[in-house]
Each structure stands twice: as C-alpha cells, then as structure tokens.
Amino acid sequence: MFHRLAAPLRAATLALLLCAPGLAAHAQERYPAKPVRFVNSFPPGGPSDLLARSVAEVLQGELKQAFVVENKPGAGGNLGAGAVAKSPADGYAVLFGIDTTFTVNPHIYGAMPFRPGELKPLMILASSGLLVGTSPSSGIASLPDLVKQAKAKRLNFSSGGSGSPGHLAIEEFQRATGLKLNHVPYKGSTPAVTAVVGSEVDGGILATPSMLPFVKAGKVTALAVTSHQRSRLAPGIATVAELGMKELEHEVLYVAMVPAATPEPVVRVLERAIADALARPDVQARMQALDLQPEAITGAAAARRLSDLSERYRQLIVATGMKVE
C-alpha cells in the first residue's frame, strides 16, 4: 500500500511546490518571454541609436522575441537613464547611451533622476575618438599651429554642449597645455560642426563622422584624432599621441546598462547575445561607418573602467569649474 501511494504523493508534493507564489513562473519562464525595450538616451539617428538598432535587429532573430528601441533623450542622457533605473530589474528594459551620463553628469548636475548604484554596466559596447578640426580661415593647419596661435590669442572652439565629450576634450586640452580656449557650446554636434564650417568659431573637437565630409570637401582642416589608435574612417589623420600630445587622448565609451538588481542569469543571456551581435560582419561594417571600435567589456572590468573614468573627470571638473550652462 505504501509503495502504491509513494509515487502519487511525490507527484502531488512537486505540484504543490511548483504552485508556490512566483515559483512556477520562475521555473517555467524563459528569458526573454516578452518584448524587450532598448531605451536609447539620445536622439534618433546618432551613433548610440544606430548601435542599439543594429544590436536589436540581431537579437530579435537570435532570441526569437521583439527588441524595440525607444528614444528618450534629454539632460545629457539623464532622462533615459532615469527611466531604466526606475524600471523593474528583470532584463526587459536596457539602457543604451554613452559613458558621460555616469562619469560626468553626477559631477556637474545639481540633481539627477537616478542614484549611483541603481544601474550597473551590462557591457561597454564600443569606443570612439573625436576629431580636432579647424576652420581654414583660422590659419591653423596643425596641432603645433593650434598651440602657437592659442598662446597669441584666445581661440573660440565649439562643442555639442556643456558636459559633452567635446567640451571635456577642450577642458583637457587647456589643462594639459596651460592655454585658454573660449568654449562655445551648441545644442548638439550638427550645429557645432556648422559653426566650424561657417567660421563662426576657430575650431572644434567633435565626432569624426560628422566632421569628415567637410574635411574631404576642404571646409574643415583636420589636425588629429583623440583616440588611442587611428580612425578606421580616416586612417590618414594622425592621433594626438603620434603628434607628441598623448595627454590629449580622449575617447567616448558606448555603454549598455541595466537596473542593478537584474538577475545574473538574465545578464549572462544578454551579454552573450550582444557580444555575438557585435562580432557579426554586418554589424562590424555599420560600426566602422560610425567610427566605433568594438570593445565588448563586461562585468567587473566594465565597472572598473567607468569608475576610473568618473574619477578622472571629477578631478577635471573640480580643477576647471565646469558646469551645465
């Protein structure tokens, strides 16, 4: 009798356990089991947006679920980051943006829509440098020329806005050389480049893809790129290190972040899928067109790199008195 009841009893016990609150769902759900939002914290059409869309397209096919890119720009990436930080920590909201939201904004904004520690890096996806370019009418044809002229008079240099990568690069130039430039912030990279082309300013330190068409047309003079290696888009332009000014190296990191409490198994699925997407030849070609160098750095290494960069920028901001204008 006991043996006849043992099997049904074990089955009933198992059924009761699986019906415990939340346990059945946890046991049966496969991630992703519903559409995933990629929240891009910058406007449509920019590098972070196009990178998010390239990755979403691949993951949609590989993981058999919808990956939808949602743009939530504003306040240097703070709005998008705040939205993801307040989302459930279940892997269904992933932030795509750049490092400055986490390495610069906490030091220059009086109030933030998220707290440090509410988000953690899923992956440093890619990096890119900037291009130091001048208006031909300025007469500045090389990096030594820039230093020479900056000693003689105060030059005007544009950026895509206060706290933007270009602004940081301008401040780093001043700190490294002891020279002074007038920082002229614009509302985005496009008007900042237009200002250089139209000789409204002497030059700018801006995204290479936005400057390069004007370099090729002879409307902007390229002095150097700030990345550790030459741009794949413009291999003929030397790096600042090659020109003897390694202290001017400056890169933008493109990052994916998730709420800090996101379960590790979900993080692992996303890490593997995104790394595989970044390795695809078609995605690599799109990244090259955006002047992005694949990185695919995850976990503690990604967190450490962002932390080190945050401290570097904190020191720069304190020394220069940078603020959001």
UniProtKB/TrEMBL annotation:
Q: Which residues form a coiled coil?
A: none
Q: Which residues belong to the signal peptide in this entry?
A: 1-27
Name its species: Cupriavidus basilensis
Query: Which branch of life, at top level?
Result: Bacteria
Q: Which InterPro entries match?
A: BUG (IPR005064), Bug_dom1 (IPR042100)
Q: Which UniProt keywords apply?
A: Signal
Family indicated by similarity:
Belongs to the UPF0065 (bug) family.
What is the official name of this protein in its record? Putative exported protein
User: Is Signal included in the keywords of this UniProt record?
Assistant: yes
Q: Which CDD domains match?
A: PBP2_Bug_TTT (cd07012)
